[in-house]
Amino acid sequence: MTEHEEPSFSVKVNRLLLTGGAFAFATGVVWGAVLVAPWLWRTAFTWY
Amino acid sequence: MERVGIVVLAILAGAGVLIGYYLLAELAVGYFVWPAFLLLLPAAAAAGALAAAGTAVLTVSGPRGHRPVTVTPAMVSAGEIPLLVPRRGAVRRDHAWPAYLPGQAQVDLWAVAGKLVRLSRGGWYPVRRVAPLIRELHERVQLTLAVVGWPVAAVVLGGAFAWSAGVVLGGTALLVLVLVLLGALEALRLAVAGGARRLDAVVRSRLGGPAGCQECYRPVPLPWFRCSGPDCDRTHRDLRPGALGAWWRRCGCGQLLPTTVFRAARRLDHYCPACSADLRERAATIPEVRVPVIGAVSAGKTRLTFAALLELGDVEFDDEASRRVFDEGARIIRERAETSKTAAGHFPAAVTVRLRVRRGFGQLGEHAYLHLFDAAGEFYQDWDENAALSFLDNATGLVFVLDPFTVPAVLAETAGQEVLGRAHPATRDAEATYQLTVQRLRLFRVPIDRLPLAVAVVKADLLTEVAAAADLTPDGTAIRDWLAEAGLDNLVLAADRDFGAVRYFLVSSLEGWTPGHPLSAAAPLRWLMARRGLTPNEIPDEPEVR
Question: Taking a contact as any Cβ pair under 8 Å apart, which residues of chain A between 1 and 48 contact chain B?
Answer without folding.
Answer: 1-5, 7-11, 13-19, 21-23, 25-26, 29-30, 32-33, 36-37, 40-41, 43-45, 47-48
